[in-house]
Amino acid sequence: MAAEQNPNADIEALSYEEAREQLVAVVGKLEAGGASLEDSLALWERGEALARRCEEWLEGARKRLAAARNQAGPES
Questions:
Q1: What's the CA gap between 68 and 24, in Å, rounded?
Q2: How wide is the angle at C-alpha 8 spanned by C-alphas 7 and 9, nearest 5°?
Q3: What is the pLDDT of residues 1-13, one digit of tens each?
């Protein structure tokens, strides 16, 4: 039943590349049309969750880059 409550729970375990690939697939399905309203809403929600996951990965990369720059200190 947990899967029914949150069908997008698997997204947290995805790498950036996996989330981006799935997001592209979701957008393609939505653009193709033909899905029922319920299916379209589920795709939209999954797309939103995938986009958030990608953003989390990118934000983490920005923080790691900033930390690495701070450790290196000012350039001479």
A1: 31
A2: 95
A3: 444 577 898 999 9
Residue 73 scores a pLDDT above 80:
no
Question: What per-residue confidence (pLDDT) applies to 56?
Answer: 96
Q: What is this structure's pTM?
A: 0.79
**How far is 31 from 48, CA to CA, in rounded Å?**
15
**Contact call for residues 11 and 49 (beta carbons, < 8 A):** yes
Q: Of 54, 49, 52, 47, which is closest to residue 24 (Cα–Cα)?
A: 47
Structure tokens at 37: 């309203």
* 41 closest CA partner among 55, 52, 30: 30
For 11, the token pair is 């997204």
Distance from C-alpha of 20 to C-alpha of 42, rounded to nearest angstrom: 17
Q: What DSSP designation does 9 have?
A: G
